[in-house]
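Summary of Year 1 activities. Much of the first year was spent building the evaluation harness for sequence design. The harness presents a backbone, in tokenized form, and records the residue chosen at every position. We chose the following record to illustrate the format because it has been used consistently in internal testing since the harness was completed.
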């Protein structure tokens, strides 16, 4: 009994911080989303779906997040696999290269992409010199710019999630598959990928949620013309001062993410 009390005493500070920093703000947001001048109401949610503008923003947010997750997984899996199979010294340098971007502010990296993708940037200049695009070509303020920037920002999270699982896989399983006649790609598809699925699911969940809730990079690279739901929430809070509608949008974003994440959770439970 004494040991149990001591354990609870150690848990109390963390639980209190969790309640104050997470549970209470979430509850406050839920209350604001259904609170109106005359009491409880669903008017804010009806306003969101009555205007086709806001559902289109939600769909764009989810669609781009899925694309970013797929590209990040396609790049991250080979990088994580190579990192897990090379020697200790080279593995250390590869891990440093993956982690190094996390030591730089997201804003700084996004401004770097703005320079690269702008009308006077090296990418547009090179393509114009090759005669492939017109003089007004620019990737800025497009969905492609947002995807490029977000993939670069979120790639370390995908690689590190996969690397933790791939590093624990026994290389002798691959050797056995090759001995049984599998090619390298067949070994990856039939042996490595199924065993690494928990890391793939964990990385995909992390990248998708961070991408869908990101605000800085989509706002800077997409501008006012390519708006995501996080940007719409920010505008409702800071410009129109409509906190109730901002809370309703936040709840809708949360529920939309939950609906998309359910298949991922089931897949992770199946391969866990």
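For this record, the design step produced the sequence shown next.
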């Amino acid at each position: 009994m004494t040991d149990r009390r001591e354990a609870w005493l150690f848990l109390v500070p963390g639980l209190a911080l969790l309640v104050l920093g997470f549970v209470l703000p979430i509850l406050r947001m839920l209350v604001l989303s259904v609170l109106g001048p005359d009491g409880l109401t669903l008017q804010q949610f009806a306003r969101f779906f009555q205007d086709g503008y806001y559902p289109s923003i939600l769909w764009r947010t989810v669609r781009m997040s899925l694309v970013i997750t797929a590209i990040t997984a396609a790049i991250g899996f080979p990088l994580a696999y190579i990192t897990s199979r090379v020697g200790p010294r080279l593995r250390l340098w590869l891990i440093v290269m993956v982690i190094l971007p996390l030591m730089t502010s997201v804003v700084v990296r996004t401004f770097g992409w703005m320079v690269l993708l702008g009308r006077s940037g090296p990418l547009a200049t090179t393509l114009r010199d090759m005669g492939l695009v017109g003089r007004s070509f620019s990737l800025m303020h497009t969905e492609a710019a947002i995807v490029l920037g977000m993939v670069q920002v979120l790639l370390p999270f995908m690689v590190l999630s996969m690397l933790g699982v791939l590093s624990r896989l026994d290389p002798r399983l691959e050797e056995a598959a090759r001995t049984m006649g599998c090619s390298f790609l067949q070994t990856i598809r039939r042996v490595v990928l199924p065993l690494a699925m928990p890391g793939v699911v964990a990385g995909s969940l992390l990248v998708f949620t961070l991408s869908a809730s990101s605000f800085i990079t989509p706002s800077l690279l997409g501008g006012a013309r390519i708006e995501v739901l996080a940007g719409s929430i920010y505008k409702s809070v800071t410009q129109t001062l409509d906190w109730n509608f901002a809370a309703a949008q936040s709840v809708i974003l949360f529920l939309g993410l939950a609906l998309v994440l359910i298949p991922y959770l089931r897949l992770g439970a199946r391969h866990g």
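DSSP finds 13 helices and two strands in the chain. Quantitative recovery figures across the full test set are reported in Table 2.
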